[in-house]
Design goal:
Number of helices: 16
Shape: globular
Strand content: 5-15%
Structural class: alpha/beta
Radius of gyration: 25 Å
Helix content: 25-40%
Number of strands: 17
Largest sheet: 7 strands, mixed
Strand order of the largest sheet: 4-12-11-10-9-5-6
Length: 467
C-alpha cells in the first residue's frame, strides 16, 4: 500500500471515498495488489491520507460489495480471490437464468406465472389460427384487419378506469417494453429530450429513454410515489417532456399512488405541460384509482400487456394515447413495425375473447398469491413490503447486509433476485433492499426452500467493516 499512496490521494474530482476505492481497484486490476494482500486498518489509512475513517470504511465497503475485497473477523481486510463473474446487466441476466429443474436453483429475478390452463388454451388457439384464412399468412397486415383484435383488447380492458376508449385508441405492441418505446417515439422531440422517472423505478424506463437518446432524470419519491414538491422543483430546472410512473404497482417497491397523489401530480404536469406515461404491466388485481388517462385525458398515456396475467411468452402489449393523440401513436407503430404479425394478432384475439381467459387470469392471480404468502411466512419477520395481488415482494435488508453482497450470497445459494441498485439511476443512490419475484414454475415446496435459505442468510449477515 505504501507504493500506492505515499502521503496523499490522487488529484481528481469527486467524493473522496470514490477516489480511495478507485485507487485500490486500479491497483488490484494492475496486479500491484495481489490476492491475499492485507489492507491497512481503516483508522491507519485514514490518518495517512488525512481523511475521516468513515470515508475509508465506505471505500472498503464498496469494494467488498464488488467482491474485490473480503473482510475476515479478527484478521482484517484482504484482496479477495477472483470469483465467477455475475451478469450485471439486467437484460443479459434475464437471458441467462439458471435452470429451475434442479431443486437448489430458483430464479426470483422476474415473475414466472403458473400454468393454470393457459398452455392448453394457447395450443388450441394456435390450431385454429393454423386453419385460418390463407391470406392471413401471405399478405401484409392492414389497419382494418386488426380491428377485431383491437376490439378484443377493449373488451379485455373494460373493467379498468381508462376513460373513453374504443378500438381506434388501441395500438398493439410487442409487449409492454415495446409499448413504452412507441410512446416515447411519439411524445419526445428535440435533439436531447428529458424524461423523468422515480428515483427507484423499472429499468425499462431508462433503457427506453436511452434508446431515444433522452436524458433520464430521477425524481425523489415517498411511499405514495412521486413527490409533488420534488417534481415541481425539477420541472423548474429542466424542460422535461414526459414522466414515467407506475401508480398501481410501483416497481420495485410494490407501493401505489392514491387518488389524491395522482391529482397533485396532474396539477403540476398541467402547469409545466408534462406528458404522463403510466406503466400498468404489473397490476394483477383491481385498479385502486382511475388511471392518469382517465384523470388527465389530454396528457395521460397508458401501457399494459398480458405478461403478468396470462403469459409473457407471446410478447403482446397495448399502448393507449390521449384521445387527440391516438393517430400520432398509431403512425409511430405503423412506421416502426407495421403492426403485429397477423397470425399473432389473430392468436391474441382468440385468446382474449375466449370465455375461459378471464377465469384463468383470476386463477393465475390466486396461485401467485399462494407464493406471496409462503414468502411472507418465511420472511415476514424482516422489513417486507408485500401484497397478495403483486407478484413480488420488496425486502429492506437488516443491518449488516448490503444489497449487492446479499444478491451475490443468494446467487451462491442458487437463488437469483434483483438488488435495489438495478432499479436506481446510474448516478442515483439505492437503499439496501432487494426485490424478490414469485416463481410459479417451481413447486410451493421448492419455493419455500428458497425462502428459508434466504432467511438463513438474513439471520447471519457478514461482519461489518469496523470504523
Amino acid at each position: 500500500m505504501d507504493t500506492i499512496w505515499p502521503t496523499d490521494l490522487p488529484k481528481s474530482k469527486g467524493p473522496k471515498y470514490t477516489l480511495v476505492a478507485d485507487t485500490i481497484r486500479k491497483a488490484i486490476e494492475n496486479k500491484q495488489m495481489e490476492v491475499g494482500v492485507k489492507l491497512p486498518p481503516v483508522r491507519e489509512l485514514a490518518y495517512r491520507l488525512q481523511i475521516t475513517p468513515g470515508t475509508v470504511a465506505r471505500a472498503y465497503s464498496i469494494l467488498t460489495e464488488e467482491g474485490l475485497l473480503q473482510a475476515e473477523v479478527g484478521r482484517g481486510t484482504f484482496v479477495a480471490p477472483p470469483k465467477m463473474p455475475l451478469l450485471d446487466d439486467v437484460w443479459s441476466r434475464q437471458l441467462h437464468l439458471r435452470d429451475d429443474k434442479y431443486d437448489a436453483n430458483v430464479s426470483l429475478f422476474s415473475p414466472r406465472l403458473p400454468d393454470v390452463g393457459q398452455v392448453s388454451l394457447i395450443r388450441s388457439c394456435l390450431a385454429k389460427v393454423a386453419q385460418g384464412d390463407p391470406k392471413m399468412f401471405m399478405n401484409y397486415p392492414t389497419r382494418d384487419a386488426y380491428l377485431p383484435v383491437r376490439q378484443a383488447v377493449v373488451d379485455w380492458l373494460s373493467d379498468l378506469p381508462l376513460g373513453a376508449l374504443n378500438a381506434d385508441d388501441i395500438v398493439l405492441t410487442h409487449g409492454g417494453q415495446s409499448g413504452l418505446c412507441v410512446v416515447f417515439q411519439t411524445v419526445l422531440r428535440d435533439p436531447k429530450p428529458v424524461v423523468l422517472v422515480e428515483d427507484l423505478s423499472y429499468a425499462g424506463f431508462r433503457r427506453a429513454g436511452e434508446l431515444m437518446r433522452a436524458e433520464v432524470v430521477g425524481v425523489k419519491m415517498d411511499k405514495w410515489g412521486i413527490s409533488p414538491d420534488a417534481l415541481d422543483h425539477i420541472l423548474r430546472q429542466t424542460r422535461a417532456q414526459a414522466i414515467c410512473v407506475s401508480p398501481e404497482v410501483q416497481n420495485p417497491t410494490g407501493g401505489h399512488s392514491p387518488l389524491e397523489r395522482r391529482n397533485e401530480v396532474i396539477e403540476i404536469a398541467r402547469r409545466h405541460d408534462l406528458q404522463i406515461i403510466e406503466d400498468d404491466c404489473y397490476r394483477m388485481g383491481e385498479a385502486r384509482a382511475p388511471s392518469y388517462r382517465a384523470l388527465a385525458p389530454e396528457r395521460g398515456w397508458h401501457v399494459s400487456s398480458i405478461s403478468k396475467t396470462l403469459t409473457p411468452a407471446l410478447r403482446v402489449g397495448f399502448a393507449i394515447a390521449p384521445r387527440e393523440r391516438s393517430g400520432d401513436l398509431r403512425r409511430s407503430a405503423e412506421y416502426g413495425y407495421f403492426g403485429l404479425a397477423q397470425p399473432l394478432a389473430e392468436l391474441t384475439r382468440l385468446l382474449l375473447s375466449h370465455p375461459q381467459s378471464r377465469q384463468m387470469a383470476r386463477d393465475v392471480r390466486a396461485k401467485m398469491g399462494e407464493y406471496v404468502r409462503v414468502a411472507v411466512n418465511a420472511l415476514g419477520g424482516f422489513n417486507l413490503n408485500w401484497d397478495a395481488d403483486i407478484p413480488f415482494v420488496w425486502l429492506s435488508l437488516p443491518s449488516g447486509w448490503r444489497a449487492a453482497a446479499f444478491s451475490r450470497a443468494a446467487e451462491r445459494e442458487g437463488i437469483q433476485l434483483r438488488s435495489a441498485d438495478e432499479f436506481a439511476l446510474r448516478d442515483g443512490r439505492a437503499p439496501n433492499a432487494v426485490r424478490i419475484a414469485m416463481n410459479g414454475h417451481v413447486s410451493l415446496k421448492q419455493f419455500e426452500s428458497a425462502m428459508l435459505r434466504l432467511r438463513a442468510l438474513l439471520d447471519n449477515p457478514p461482519e461489518q467493516i469496523s470504523v
